[in-house]
Amino acid sequence: MSAPSPTPDPDATPRVHTLSNGVRVVCDPMPGLQTVALSVVAGRGARYEDEARSGWSHLLEHMVFKGAGGRSARGIVEVIEAEGGHINAATGYERTSFQVRALKHGLDLGSSVIADLVLRPAMDAGDLTREKQVVAQEIAEAADAPDDLVFELAQEAAFAGQPLGRPILGTTASIGRATPETLTDWRAALYAPESLVVSAAGAVDEDELLRFAERDFGHAEGPSLPPPEPAHFEAGVRPVAKKLEQANVVLLLPAVGVLDPDYFTLRLLAEILGGGMASRLFQEAREKRGLAYAIDAYSETYADTGVLGVFAGCAATDAEELARVTAGEIGELTKPVGEAELARAKAQLKGSMFMGREGALARAEQAAGQVLLFGRTLHPDIVAREVDSVTAEDIARLVEWILRERKSAVAVLGPKPALRAAPVFEASLFGMAAIGFSPTY
Description:
Shape: globular
Number of domains: 2
Helix content: 40-55%
Order of helices and strands: EEEHEEHEEHHHHHEHEEHHEEHHHHHEH
Distance between the termini: 34 Å
Low-confidence stretches: 1-11, 432-441
Mean pLDDT: 93
Number of helices: 16
CATH class of the largest domain: Alpha Beta
Structural class: alpha+beta
CATH topology of the largest domain: Cytochrome Bc1 Complex, Chain A, domain 1
Number of strands: 13
CATH architecture of the largest domain: 2-Layer Sandwich
Oligomer: single chain
C-alpha cells in the first residue's frame, strides 16, 4: 500500500491520541447507535514467538480469561453480560485483540475489565494445567478438520522454519513448557504499552474514552520486543493422503505485504481470479467444468509479505485437472484484464470494505489496525482512491512478478489420487517457456 495521502476531510477522520506511556487511543463516534464497541489491540502475536514458545500468545489469551483483577473466570463473563454486553478475544500472527460490545453506557466497565485481562491476570498454576489440556484439545480438533488442517499445511510449506510457518495454536510440546512465571513475562512483553491501541466506535464520547483509557491503561509498563525477522516465502509441497470424501487443495504463491504499494493491486487480483461468482475460477472451474463445488481465491497479507492463495474442495479424481485450470487462469492474468472486469472487481472490493465499516466492532478493529501500521487512521475516501488508481497493467505486472519468483507452496489433503495436484500445479504454472503462456487445459 502506498504512503497515505493527506486526508481530504480531517474532521471526519478519528484523531489518534498518545498517552504518556505510549498507549494510543482512537475514538470513532457513529451517530444513531445505541451500542459501543471497544477493541484493545496489541500489535504483537504469534509471529514474535520463537519455536520454544510457539503457541504461547494464544495460550496467554486463554489464561487471562481464567481470572483477572480479582474476578474469577465466571465473574469476568457475568459482569459484562449483566450489562447486556459480550466479551471476546483473538490471537493472530501480528496482533492480539480483546473486544467488548456493550450498550452505550458500557464503556466504563468494558475498559476496566479489558485492562484487568491485559495487565492484571491471575496466572494460577492449576488453571494453567487445565488450560493446557483445553488448548491440546483445540490442536487435536484442528488436526481432525480437513479444511483447517490443509491451510495449516500450506502455511507451513510457504514459510517453513519461520514463525509464520508455525500454527498459532503451537504444539502440545511447546505449550507444555509454559509456566505461570514464564507466561507472566511473556504477557508483559506481548502487551507492552508501546504496542497497545485502545479503539472505540459507536455510541462513544471522545473525552470519556480518553479519561477511561488514562485511568485503565495510562500506567501500563512492559519491555520492548525486537521486530520479527523478515519473512521469506519458501517453495514446498505438503501432500497428505487421508481417507476423505473429497480432496482439499490449497495453492499459494508469493505476494506483497500490506505496506507495499501493490497492496490493493493484490486485493483486486484475488477478486478477479476467484473472489466471487463472476470470478474467472468460479466460472471456469465450477460453472463450465464442474470441477469443484467450492473454489475461492484470496490474499493473506502481513506487514512485510503476503500470499496469493486458492482453496478448492473437489473430487480426488478432479484435483489434477483443477490444478491445471487454476494455473492456466493465473497465467492468463499476465494479459491486462478488460475494463468491465476491472470495474466490477473494484466495486466488489470497495463494497466489502465499506460494508464492513458499518459494524461498530469491525470499525474499531480497522482503526486499531491502521494506527498500528500507519500511525493514524485513513479516511475511506483515501482507500477508495487507492483502489480506483489500480490499472489493468498494474495487475498484469504483479502477476508477472509473482510468476517470475517461480515458487509455489501447495497442500493437498485427501485420497491418494488427489496428491498429484501438487506437482501438476507447479509444472503447469512454471513449466511454460514464457510467462505470457497460453493455458494447457
